[in-house]
Amino acid sequence: MTIQDIPALNAALNGLATVLIVLGFVQIKAAQRAAETQLRSRRITTHRRLMLAAGAVSAVFLIGYVGHKVLVRGVHTPFGGEGAIRTVYYVMLLTHIVLAMAIAYLVPKTFALALRGDVERHRRWARWTYPIWLYVSVTGVLVY
Questions:
Q1: Which end of the chain, N or C, is surrounded by fewer C-beta atoms within 10 Å?
Q2: Axis-axis angle for helices 37-71, 119-143 (nearest 10)
Q3: 74 — alpha (psi -120 to 50), left (phi > 0) or beta?
Q4: Of the candidates 132, 137, 127, which has an alpha carbon nearest to the alpha carbon of residue 18?
Q5: Which helix (H) or strand (E) holds 121?
Q6: How many CA within 13 A on the CB side of residue 126?
Q7: pTM (predicted TM-score)
């Protein structure tokens, strides 16, 4: 592996995080609809595992991203497109960066509430955290 491979690996990690985030969301929605207590409990456990895995993958991504930036001394590849696509790209990049900074706080806070067993507050935070985290994860791949 070379330094040039790190961005592709980071994009793959973001893609994997996206899949895990969506699967975790599907599991918690299925748990809310489950009539049987045992099935609900299994789905909640699966949700927890998927979201923790998404958090771990995102943390590995962040280490790789920061590591790459340090290794290349902050140098980035300029966007080569022109016209409307250039505007779309830079708007997406700007919103991605701003929301990624928010996610650095929102995800750990939402996790902490869940792990403490404060389910109601966890749900309230997750209503904001989930769509922002999903957007950041998807746009991370698209920006790559």
A1: N
A2: 40
A3: left
A4: 137
A5: helix 119-143
A6: 19
A7: 0.92
